[in-house]
């Protein structure tokens, strides 16, 4: 398959986005960056009271489509000082505990590392770390309780278009959102909202606030999704890196926390992908949720463009640049075509 033309533009943008701290509830720096980038290709840009970035392209009274990507990431927050001068923390969102020991981090403005026992002192009965057993080593730095902690791993471009970096969930979605906005040729009679949302990793209420304010005819969420192309994941599905965006039909986590794609909108995306020779994948996922769940509370048709990722919520997450580029093409095709009748029943 020919690589899409946008692939080379993403690595520098992803490196910039990954370097900006912004765990859930602390997204202001990311919001300022996103708002600054969107200002050049939108009619208006604002950061609302919740911290969401809302950019509008087109008149406010037109029918509208909203494209959303969450700006926040998982991380840690300092909640105690240990007697030896190290610090303990709580998880903010679903951090991947398997990847945390020995990971480099930023504890506020201080360099640090997640502590790990020396292999020479390891015990045979040691299992998976718990958040309570982890500690942060910042040397002699003094750290205030409630200081945010973020990953400080180094991005790496891998052979064949693969790219590994911290916080691709969902800085990769933010990069896709920016490229759609930059390339958009404004369609007649349609207004497009580009929205960077807050607190997806903890409650998704930022997306609810933003969508309630703009009330679009349809909402398209751009977010990281799981892949099934490594030995330990192959039994759970067929999504692979480099196979194109995943048009997810269903997400669910425990406690009745789930979402279903609008069947007409998802079918429209599949039709557009086929018409424009855009590769795509399909999936239904348990153990994953998204800002898209807020759309049902507002009665809005919604769909997800999923960006396949390996190692989600670990200090390095791996993506394929083609998936991002094809996601841009698919979203642009959606905005260039009339929306179908999305009434239910």
Describe the protein's architecture and organization.
The chain has 345 residues and is of the alpha+beta class. The protein has 2 domains: 7-73 and 155-336, Aminopeptidase (3-Layer(aba) Sandwich), CATH 3.40.630.10; 75-151, Elongation Factor Tu (Ef-tu), domain 3. The chain is 23% helix and 28% strand. Strands 1, 2, 3, 12, 13, 14, 15, 16 and 17 form a 9-stranded mixed β-sheet that branches. The radius of gyration is 20 Å and the shape is globular. The mean pLDDT is 94.
Output the keywords.
345 residues; six-stranded antiparallel β-sheet; nine-stranded mixed β-sheet; 7 helices; Aminopeptidase; 28% strand; alpha+beta; Elongation Factor Tu (Ef-tu), domain 3
In short:
Helix content is 23%, strand content 28%. It is of the alpha+beta class and 345 residues long.
- Low-confidence stretches at least 5 residues in length (pLDDT < 50)? none
* The number of domains: 2
Distance between the termini: 39 Å
Secondary-structure-derived class:
alpha+beta
CATH fold node name of the largest domain: Aminopeptidase
The helix/strand order is HHEEEEEEEEEEEHEHEEEHEHEEH
How would a textbook summarize the main sheet? 9 strands, mixed
CATH architecture of the largest domain: 3-Layer(aba) Sandwich
Number of helices: 7
Which homologous superfamily in CATH is the superfamily of the largest domain? Answer: Zn peptidases
Q: What proportion of the residues form beta strands (DSSP E)?
A: 25-35%
CATH class of the largest domain: Alpha Beta
Radius of gyration: 20 Å
Report helical residue fraction.
10-25%
**Mean pLDDT metric:** 94
Shape: globular
User: How many individual β-strands?
Assistant: 18
């Amino acid at each position: 398959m020919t690589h899409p033309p946008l692939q080379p533009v993403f690595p520098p943008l992803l490196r910039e986005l990954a370097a900006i701290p912004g765990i859930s509830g602390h997204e202001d720096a990311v919001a300022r960056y996103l708002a600054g980038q969107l200002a050049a290709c939108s009619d208006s840009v604002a950061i609302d009271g919740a911290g969401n970035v809302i950019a509008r392209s087109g008149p406010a009274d037109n029918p509208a489509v909203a494209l959303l990507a969450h700006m926040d990431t998982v991380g840690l927050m300092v909640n105690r000082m240990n007697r030896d001068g190290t610090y303990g923390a709580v998880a903010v969102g679903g951090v991947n505990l398997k990847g945390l020991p020995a990971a480099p981090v930023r504890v506020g403005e201080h360099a640090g590392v997640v502590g790990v026992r020396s292999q020479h002192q390891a015990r045979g009965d040691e299992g998976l770390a718990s958040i309570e057993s982890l500690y942060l080593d910042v040397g002699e730095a003094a750290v205030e309780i409630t200081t945010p902690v973020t990953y400080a791993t180094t991005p790496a471009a891998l052979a064949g278009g693969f790219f590994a970096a911290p916080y691709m969930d969902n800085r990769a979605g933010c990069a896709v959102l920016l490229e759609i906005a930059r390339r958009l040729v404004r369609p007649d009679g349609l207004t497009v909202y580009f929205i960077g949302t807050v607190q997806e990793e903890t409650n998704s209420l930022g997306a609810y606030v933003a969508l309630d304010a703009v009330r679009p005819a349809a909402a398209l969420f751009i977010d990281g999704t799981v892949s099934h192309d490594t030995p330990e994941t192959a039994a759970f599905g067929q999504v692979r890196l480099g196979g194109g965006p995943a048009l997810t039909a269903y997400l669910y986590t425990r406690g009745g926390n789930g979402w279903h794609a609008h069947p007409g909108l998802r079918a429209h995306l599949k039709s557009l992908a086929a018409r424009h020779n855009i590769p795509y994948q399909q999936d239904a996922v348990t153990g994953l949720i998204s800002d898209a769940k807020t759309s049902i509370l507002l009665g809005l048709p919604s769909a997800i463009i999923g960006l396949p990722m390996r190692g989600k919520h670990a200090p390095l997450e791996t993506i394929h640049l083609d998936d991002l580029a094809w996601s841009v093409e698919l979203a642009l095709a959606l905005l260039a075509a009339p929306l179908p009748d999305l009434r239910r029943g």
